[in-house]
Amino acid sequence: MAAEKGMNITLKVWRQKNGQSKGALETYQINDVSPDSSFLEMMDALNDQIIMKDGSPVVFDHDCREGICGSCSMYINGQPHGPARLVTTCQLHMREFKDGETIYVEPFRAKAFPVIKDLVVDRSALDRIQHAGGYISVNTSGNTQDANAIPIEKEKADKAFDAATCIGCGACVAACKNASASLFMSAKISQYALLPQGQVEAKNRVLAMVKQAEEEGFGPCSNTGACEIECPKGISLENIARMNREYLSASLTSK
Amino acid sequence: MKLDSKIPEGPLKDKWTNYKNNIRLVNPANKRNIDVIVVGTGLAGGSAAATLAELGYNVKAFCYQDSPRRAHSIAAQGGINAAKNYQGDGDSTYRLFYDTIKGGDYRSREANVYRLAEVSANIIDQCVAQGVPFARDYGGLLDNRSFGGVLVSRTFYAKGQTGQQLLLGAYSAMNRQIAKGKIEMFNRHEMLDVVIVDGKARGIIARNLVTGEIERHSAHAVVIGSGGYGNVFFLSTNAMGSNVTASWKIHKRGALFANPCYTQIHPTCVPVHGTQQSKLTLMSESLRNDGRIWVPKKIEDAKAIREGKLRARDIKEEDRDYYLERRYPSFGNLVPRDVASRAAKERCDAGYGVVNNDTNEGVFLDFASAIQRYGKQEALLKGIHNPSKEEVESLGKKVVESKYGNLFDMYKQITAENPYETPMKIYPAVHYTMGGVWVDYNLMTTVPGLYAIGEANFSDHGANRLGASALMQGLADGYFVLPYTIGDYLADDIRTGKISTDLPEFKEAEDSVKSMIDTFINNKGKHSVDYFHKKLGLIMWNKVGMSRTASGLKEAIEEIKVLREQFWKEVKVPGTADEMNPELEKATRVADFLELGELFARDALEREESCGGHFREEHRTEDGEAKRDDENFAYVAAWEYTGQPSEAILHKEELKFENVELKTRSYK
Ligand SMILES: Cc1cc2nc3c(=O)[nH]c(=O)nc-3n(C[C@H](O)[C@H](O)[C@H](O)COP(=O)(O)OP(=O)(O)OC[C@H]3O[C@@H](n4cnc5c(N)ncnc54)[C@H](O)[C@@H]3O)c2cc1C
Ligand code: SF4
Ligand code: FES
């Protein structure tokens, strides 16, 4: 893993002072980047360079840097989380790029994700969808039945798990031409729909979450499948189909 | 100051029950008049906020990320322990208690640890009821795996994403309360001070990280669940923003800080690749269930591997040194973390490291035997007689993939090497801090009304934490312990009424935060914050890391002092105070790390013994194992702030062991 010869990269980075101001792309040159560095380590190096020249460093969201917290966002060369499949921006490594390449870096764009600064957007709308129904109403008092009282078919449990691995990054929204949050929402709805614990509130849940998503300004799903391609966790379109079934049956039976 | 741990009377196994039965309660109508601030939304803070809100208190919760779901707990991989004995392998509350005390090298409090073991089973029930999708077997029941330092299978898991699933469970419980208006959530807010009125914690000062506004928030009690301080080493497996600020600020306002030097260096992390590196990545301990750790027996082979002239597969079986299996035959690759880490360092220091970085730091973690073993098993199950070598390998790889797929992918992404074909390279890295804010049995600090939970406190893991026990502790504190104990304190506050944020104490704290921020913005120095953080990290890693000496620690204390002075003179923070400004956030955090680091080294210097993660070269047995000194050091070192970190006053809480016999920890 020794560092090979460093790469020289040209960056076109979206700079925007705040939500009110207009933004624009700015060009930066950064040299001697190790191909073993992560994309965000390259951005760190860029910021170091900017700070030393008394400029204002590029602001971006990040925290875990191992693909699980869902903080990092940004379009890289027009794709949410960049060119590699099934990885987040923070897991992307410079070896994916060519020496001398020009890379475009921009914030996620969606009506429901207003820009806060540079590459940082406000994704709290996703939280509000969860407030609307992303939970099972059980008290946290500890007076519950034994965990093994209800066996759950392994296949279903595994599917529920796969859906539950959504990291709430919003790439699906950013990838969608309608800025729909369907993949994100369907992941939570599927997780609970597949488990016996989630059945009781299933109907209200799907209705409430879908309604909230509309109010937040997320668009409708027109099944282009762009979300699935860009989702770093491989959340499957199957979940949207399940959500639609749940929604249909809930709307038919609700008064 | 006299330390009172408030451990209830009575036999160990009845303490918690008796205590709960006699505790004062706040009636539901009165709870509506009581506000509680919870700083942190990880497993500890998130579960506490949800439960307190559900009980009826008005909760204000804070996190620095843009959503509570992103707290660092999300990154925990391997699993969570609970004494369910579902596997029928002889597990029990007592055994989990005993393993934790022993694993912690007899430096934790019996009563707290027993309570933890006692409530552990409930956690699993709770989480399953919340819809946490734990791994299950084909019969539909919950599956378990083993973690280091124990001989039973009691770890519940959700592939390599256990922390994520548990945190999303707590987050969902929070969402339910946010929807009801019982939790007011403050995302992108950082607590920068605590406000103490008449000796009681009554609020915090927080910075809105979007607007830069400095805000006052009041409450009847303040709970700190802000996580650990491993980032004092700069490179660690912690999230980039993990920090000590909340804990350190309360320390400076009177809360004692306990055992700062107890740090866990995790044996299986991806080795350092170069100077641009920003953090280290853990490869879960669960991999040691199936991976075998080795280095070449011959020093020239190790050299050839580093130079790229030989590959791991070229080394013949008899030329490999499975050093953990050799040194610790009964636990083998599953020795506790501190033991495994030191053994890796020992081999690399002796020249057998296999990674070509500055320090040759790295050893192999090899799955070839597991792939063979599982492959043969699968072939049998599938009724394939005389399977070919390729068939066995392909079947075996599938099993390994189903168990560790996401970890293998992660490794490949970072290193561009395929761990199904060639062994992983791993090396120890800073991972967890057992030390933290001193708390009594109620989880209250030495400041009335101020609590610390989760990794932020020091309470349950002694000098070394066993794998899969942090998640257990975080949720135990938040779901099951704090919600009881805090009632006892708040029972006095039912008539207090709202706490005003106009009190002079709020102004004083706010002014001090503002003046710190102004200093940074106006400093116009010549080095970035990271420049200082990296320097601090190097001092810590080289002199206060895996093995420590008196002379090294003394040097570290002096070097950190000098670095801190330089930091305040020369740090450069661009931008302004009234905007989103991550460099400013980093500066406020590093300022605190630069103080903590010094106390950390002082604590390590004072502790003239080796125990758990704290290894003093002066105190080891002939075969290089840690040598504890129970006669003189069976105490918690709780430090009182007086102005200069290294002039802190040491208070000792003697540890009494009434239920276990102190033994030399042996995993041989
Ligand atoms: C990579 C990795 C893997 C791990 N795997 C396991 C495992 O398999 N099993 C296990 O038991 N343990 C594991 N651990 C340890 C475990 O994850 C942590 O100890 C535990 O999650 C800590 O939880 P917490 O709630 O105390 O704090 P955290 O989850 O760290 O949460 C801290 C919270 O405090 C907030 N915060 C911090 N400072 C401030 C401030 N100043 N103002 C406002 N908010 C603030 C943050 O925003 C966050 O919400 C692992 C740790 C790591 C790093
Ligand atoms: S569904 Fe995928 S892309 Fe969408 S928020 Fe979840 S993890 Fe991100
Ligand atoms: S920083 Fe956490 S997912 Fe990228």
TrEMBL record, chain B:
Domain Fumarate reductase/succinate dehydrogenase flavoprotein-like C-terminal: 533-667
Subcellular location: Cell membrane
MF GO annotations: electron transfer activity; flavin adenine dinucleotide binding; succinate dehydrogenase (quinone) activity
Keyword DNA repair: no
Topology versus the membrane: Peripheral membrane protein
Enzyme class: oxidoreductase
Encoding gene (name): sdhA
Cofactor(s) needed: FAD
GO annotation, biological process: anaerobic respiration
Domain FAD-dependent oxidoreductase 2 FAD-binding: 35-471
Active-site residues annotated for this sequence: R337
NCBIfam families: PRK07573.1, sdhA_Bsu
Family note: Belongs to the FAD-dependent oxidoreductase 2 family. FRD/SDH subfamily.
Gene3D superfamilies: FAD/NAD(P)-binding domain, Fumarate reductase/succinate dehydrogenase flavoprotein-like, C-terminal domain, Succinate dehydrogenase/fumarate reductase flavoprotein, catalytic domain
The protein's Enzyme Commission number: 1.3.5.1
GO cellular component term, pick one: plasma membrane
Provenance organism: Acidiluteibacter ferrifornacis
Location (main, coarse): membrane
Keywords assigned by UniProt, alphabetized: Cell membrane, Electron transport, FAD, Flavoprotein, Membrane, Oxidoreductase, Transport
Catalysis performed (reactions): a quinone + succinate = fumarate + a quinol
Protein name, UniProt field: succinate dehydrogenase
InterPro entries with a match to the protein in the record: FAD-dep_OxRdtase_2_FAD-bd (IPR003953), FAD/NAD-bd_sf (IPR036188), Fum_R/Succ_DH_flav-like_C_sf (IPR037099), Fum_Rdtase/Succ_DH_flav-like_C (IPR015939), SdhA/FrdA/AprA (IPR030664), Succ_DH/Fum_Rdt_flav_su (IPR011280), Succ_DH/fumarate_Rdtase_cat_sf (IPR027477)
